[in-house]
Amino acid sequence: MSNTSLPQRMARNVPTELLRSFVAIVEAGSMAQATETIFLTQSALSLQMKRLEDVLQQKLFRRDGRKLVLTPAGEELVAYARQLLALNDRIMHKLGDVSEPEPITIGMVQDFADTILPDVLARFRLEHPRCRLTVRVGGSAELLEMFDRSRLDIVLCLGQHGDRPNSSWRIVGHDRMVWIGDPSVLDQSEIPLVLLEPPCRFREAALRTLAKARRDYRIVLETPHLPAMRAGVRSGLGASCRTRRFATSEGLSILPTGILPEVPEIETILVQRNGLPEAAQDLAELLAQATADQ
Known about the structure:
- 44% of the residues lie in helices and 21% in strands.
- By secondary structure, it is an alpha/beta fold.
- It folds into two domains: 12-95, Orthogonal Bundle (Arc Repressor Mutant, subunit A), CATH 1.10.10.10; 99-294, D-Maltodextrin-Binding Protein, domain 2 (3-Layer(aba) Sandwich).
- α8 links the parallel β7 (191-196) and β8 (217-223).
């Protein structure tokens, strides 16, 4: 008689929601503690475990006084359950037709938006094609204020050591401030300056170092917008202060050292919210790597 003529035993499936509750109980140590992580009542959990035991035809827990202890079958199931749940989550993450995800909100200064952002976005898209992003470009002070008001998940900005360190703040790169502009501005008795409106780290550094060196200056253009500041420098209207990365990416002339007072080093700061989803953490790491590579 061929095998095809034999009655086939119907395959049974183990519901993943039962396995998820089972693992939650094991990891929490009790049903009461597990209710805090999977948001089911203790009686609902108890019914789920009864159903799981019926599906498997195995006792998974036994009582030891007031404690629940795994039976040998329960101990064997734990490893299988974790593997199956991990595979299930991976499938849903990669292929699941889930609702539109919440966007990851990023803030960064123009220096990085013009240089590292295109490559970072291209690399991020390969790993997380379904993710939505919202990018805000602005000054460091503005972006950090938005972060404090929970308007941004990740901020890549510029600062200096000791500004406001905390668990969400880390230094991921260093750059040196440089003077930029047409060299002809150096022939003037008063250095003409093109500056962003306060608050601005570069404005503060330029004015402080000129005052300390007792160099005369006058502000010839002041603007809240970086493109307008860049236009003023490019036109030869005056000198300004920015990072070497910014000057190089924009093709702006870096003024020779020794004529104007030296401006300080500046740090690249990455600030990210605690408990971000995996995709947002991956994006933060890509930003950190990109700034370190510069």
